Amino acid sequence: MVKSSKRFNELANAQYFSMHEWTFHRDNVRKMMVDVKTLKDSEIVKLNRDVDWERYITIYMTGIEKFILKEKFKSIDASRQRLSVLYWIHQIIQIFGIIAILAIISYTIY
Hints:
Blueprint: H1 2-19, H2 27-38, H3 53-68, H4 76-109
């Protein structure tokens, strides 16, 4: 109970940052990129705009699980598989709920 309460509090603390829409301005980054190109050390400093966002998010979410949520390390594929199973369980429960409601309605009408 204490572990789940602690985890809930950690998620609640992170809620502000995850639930708000943020606007980031890139003016300083653009200026820095122009300045670096003019330096003689521009070959050493690599500024890459081609970010593999899917890989970045995968690594980011793994870090969130490991360091913030303190979960045991598990692969993304295992997490996706578990999420898929939970999704289908939820769908089946909803179908049975609808059938139960329709049965109650038809029972009260007839």
